[in-house]
Specification:
The chain has 14 helices and 4 strands. It has a domain of 55 residues. The relative contact order is 0.10. β3 and β4 form a beta hairpin. The chain has 360 residues and is α+β, with helices and mostly antiparallel strands.
């Protein structure tokens, strides 16, 4: 597939496309890059391919303008991420920047750190949920709380989500194991914040090898996931875990019933991104990987292109919920635990949110 070739050219695994695309094919490649939030990455690939394979000048200029805008956003957001982290630290909260600009730093290995499309800032503060919510609501009384974070709103033009825990799982039992894992890691992670000056505090490679995969897993069920998040995970793995770290990471993932999902992701790492076997956590599963990749190509970035989860005009809440449940049930053969527990978690979370946000 030309699109996957373009990705692997950006990553340095290939030097040219299998053939020079037609104008129509280039339009499709642009649309796919936009859908998967990889316009910056594919722009970097275009710079590397022979001139005769590049798109026509109007589309090429449009692509490059977008890439320059992405580079400017990254430069600005890197500065703001440091300032935001330092602000919370001065207010008494050791902290870690999750995902986002912390992951973007890992793209340096392929000189692509400026080409990753940035988003908002997710920051994990040390402390209990109660203390964090109390702190936020002193200045932002209307901030909404969900299980794992509270919306802080904008700081210097950037949306900020403050996490009391990095993530969750639908299944009560696996979620308990996950929260125990976070608790075991947090002291070492927050200690990293104290050793940095003028830099973004980021999680360890070992932590991200588990956390970023969980982030992908969670979004798969709730709205959909795109290749940008999978590329983030490629760069996590590409840093190179030690044998013991890889073994321990898989032990954690097995305890969370994610071994099958890990195998699917490893196949995508190999097929789409060209990841070498030595960097993988487990054996790739082609069957599971093809199913997952099909979902990713349908959904686009965070499910924004998936008509199965769109809210139609004049559609009732019940009808919309039924369509989302049908999509969720398509995963039951592969990931039964999270699918079965999803309605129970959503019901519990609905009432939990009402109480936490004092809604009647």
């Amino acid at each position: 597939m030309l699109f996957f070739d373009l990705i692997q050219i950006a990553l340095g695994h290939k030097t040219e496309l299998s053939h020079a695309p037609s104008d129509e094919e280039w339009k499709e490649l642009y649309a796919l890059s936009k859908k998967q939030t990889l316009l910056g990455i594919t722009a970097a690939a275009i710079e590397k391919i022979p001139a005769h394979q590049r798109p026509a000048k109007p589309l090429l200029l449009q692509w490059y303008v977008t890439a320059e805008h992405i580079k400017d956003l990254n430069e600005s957001l890197n500065i703001k991420a440091v300032k935001i982290s330092e602000m919370f630290y001065k207010h008494g909260f050791r902290n870690i920047i999750l995902k986002g600009q912390g992951i973007a730093k890992l793209y340096e290995i392929a000189q692509l750190e400026k080409y990753r499309t940035p988003g908002d800032i997710d920051i994990w503060l040390e402390g209990s949920r109660e203390n964090i919510v109390e702190y936020v609501r002193k200045s932002r009384p209307n901030s909404k709380v969900v299980y794992h974070h509270i919306d802080f709103g904008e700081i210097d033009g950037v949306d900020v989500e403050i996490h009391s825990t990095p993530s969750w799982m639908n299944c009560y039992f696996t979620n308990k194991k996950l929260q125990n894992f976070f608790s075991q890691c947090k002291d070492d992670l927050f200690r990293r914040c104290e050793t940095l000056q003028g830099d973004i505090p980021t999680p360890s490679l070992y932590f991200n090898s588990i956390y970023i995969l969980i982030h992908i897993y969670r979004h798969l069920f709730h709205e959909g996931i795109g290749l940008r998040q999978l590329m983030d995970y490629y760069f996590v793995l590409r840093q190179g875990l030690t044998e013991s770290e890889a073994r321990e990471a898989m032990e954690v993932l097995r305890s969370l019933r994610m071994e099958r999902f890990a195998g699917a992701v490893m196949w995508i790492m190999q097929e789409v991104f060209g990841l070498e076997e030595g960097y993988m956590l487990t054996t790739p599963s082609e069957k599971d990987g093809r199913f997952l990749l099909n979902e990713i190509m349908i959904s686009g970035n965070f499910g924004q292109y998936d008509i199965r989860v769109w809210r139609n005009n004049n559609e009732s809440d019940l009808s919309h919920a039924i369509r989302k449940i049908k999509r969720l049930l398509s995963f039951i053969h592969y990931y039964p635990s999270e699918v079965v527990w999803s309605p129970l978690f959503k019901l519990w979370h609905y009432f939990w949110r009402r109480k936490a946000n004092n809604t009647k």
